[in-house]
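question for whoever is on the cluster today: can someone run the full assembly for these? two chains, 766 residues total. i dont have access anymore since they changed the login thing
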Amino acid sequence: MSRVAVLKGGRSLERSVSLRSGARVEDALGRLGHDIVAIDVSTDLMPRLREANPDVAFVAMHGRDGEDGTVQELLEIAGIPYTGSGPAACARATDKVLAKHLMIEAGIPTPPFFAFNETAFGELGAAEALPAIEERLEFPIVVKPASGGSALGIKFARNARDVPAALVAAFSYDSKVLLERHVRGRDLAVSILDGDALPVVEAVPRDEAFYDFEARYEIGRTDFVCPAALSADLAGRCQDLARAVYELLGCRDFARVDLMLGADGEPTVLEANPIPGLTETSLLPQAAEAAGIGFDGLVGRILELALSRQTRSLPA
Amino acid sequence: MSVSRDLERYAGLFAARTKVMKSSAMRDLMAITARPEVISLAGGLPDTSTFPPESFAAATRRIAEESCARALQYGPTEGLDETKACIAEAMAAEGMRVDGEDLIVTTGGQQVIDLVTKALIDPGDVVIAEGPTYPGAVPVFSSYEADVVQIDMDSDGMRVDLLETTLDRLEREGRTPKFVYTVPSFQNPAGVTMSAPRRRRLVEVARERELLVLEDNPYGLLRFEGEQPETLYSLDGGLYVMYLGTFSKTLSPGIRLGWVAAPAPVLEKINLGKQAADLCTSTLSQLMVNAYFEQGRWRDYVASLVDLYRGRRDTMLEALADHFPPQAEWTRPSGGLFVWATLPDFIDTTDLLARALRENVAFVPGEAAYLDGRGRSSLRLSFALCDHDEIREGIRRIGEVVTEQVKLYGTLTGEHQAVPRPEPAAEPADGARVLPLPGRADRERRAQRG
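^ ran it for u. tokens below:
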């Protein structure tokens, strides 16, 4: 039995999802017989960790602070072992622009894109380049903030007139945004557990006519199929790609890689999430279950991986 | 073999009406507005810190000493007679006369919206509401699967002429609306008040077409200046107007006490609905109101609230003028709790909220006040709960991010956003979805963008 601090909530835009992930992890840890200290992460995180004095921290946070390496860095400083990827992998995966550059360098397929920060438009006249970008990406174009794991701020530009407002919206979430070629096709996700790829999940919109980016996150608008109806060969290729991305970014314990299967039958990687959701409707727990690993087993396994790591102690 | 699995394990068990249409994006955003470091201009909360604790203590002591057993007991579904007398006194302060038998005491005003909708609406029936409408009514209408048609407003409240053309259209389509839902005074969220001529016309329309009206009047007594127009209930005399009142804004929302006055047959259905919902309104809360009204100072307290909110309204309007860019417009309420601001249409206020939260300030995005996806460039600002410094600072921060987005858009389009000039409003063919409040024409901005 271990004393586990479950870190959840925080002030990220994915706070409510994180609270649900955290609550579910707490239930599982309780059933596994662990002693739990739940922490809704705020300005008093460090004193609360000191007070709780846990053997290990389970990071059930999503988005800013929790998933981008910030909390991981603090846990390193505090010398507390924790679940999931370290600061460097979190920083690489959370920044979609950086992750995509790394993928391209490594020869991993990802949709063509251009990325800008506000300075590029404000001071370097990047607006002049928009027509050329639009021509090279072809409409529709997806405009999204560089960070963030939910549908927030992701806009679909159908023509040149949509682009400026879509950029304004995306810049609401991050000072860096990307314009990406939209890949029409099947929406797939591969979760990785300790380096092994779990069965592929496919998100299938219930009503094609109304399918949009938000649909995926709206209760009752999407069905998930696991394992996805793919040939063994294709499923294997998706899993290989996901594993390659996981290793490329330096992830550990678990992660989820989102892919699109284009109309040409070729999979392409959209992004990697170092701390995917752990709620009832989340994909990693479903994929684990399809592989015969129940939620308690999944949480127990992730915790063991964290506990097996050497801790760095605080300098005196 | 692949197995199709519905991840929502319970989804098959839920009733279709539970599919509330509010976007998950906004739910996620609203989840972080409650943090202590955030200046929230979002909530429609009155400032209960101003309520005198000695009044509260005296009322509770009196209940404990004189009517403890009664306070702890069930009460009649329609409410206690003494509480109805207090309600009659509160309504008289706005020039209304009501008999106790025309009243049901409810668990907050919100329950009235629920019970009226439950009593009148079958799935697909039409409810007419203002555009924008009270965000808290949206999930009620959705949960009863009402088809909500929203009528635009201007600075004189709901455009009753547009209501009439819409009613004509619905009639041609063979659809009969069941009721019109309106907040005529200091509307939530728009902050505007329906003019006296429009009130008279609305009551006439209701009678001509045998259409019920639900007059939701939580803020009527919170008037900062100007003449109080007669309520729809007074004008109508209780034939077609159902009146919703509440103690939430004049005493306390925590006691959850509201009421409905309605024609007897409607009241009977509401009574049956209330029996099913919660048997009766809290006896303790009703005794609190009785004891408080006996102290005879409730009007003084309301007057102190009016002074407080008037000052905060002034501060908000000054701050808006100082910090919002010229492309923004906003209403100037003469009472209530809210200002409604409208930004250029390239700004989505749900996304803007995400940006604003990084500056630790919150508001309600306009889409919450519409059921049809409109309102995305508007926002509701409450001046009731924050002190002057917080209001100034909150508006300054929002103004800064709005200005930043206006500038960015100008850079992206290679245009400078000119100050819009007022133009005569377009004459709408069928007005249900023509004019954005406060009456700015979209084509103006389109023209600017070419």
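summary bc i know u wont read the tokens: The domain at 71-295 of chain B is CATH 3.40.640.10 (Aspartate Aminotransferase; domain 2). The two ends of chain B are 55 Å apart (CA to CA).
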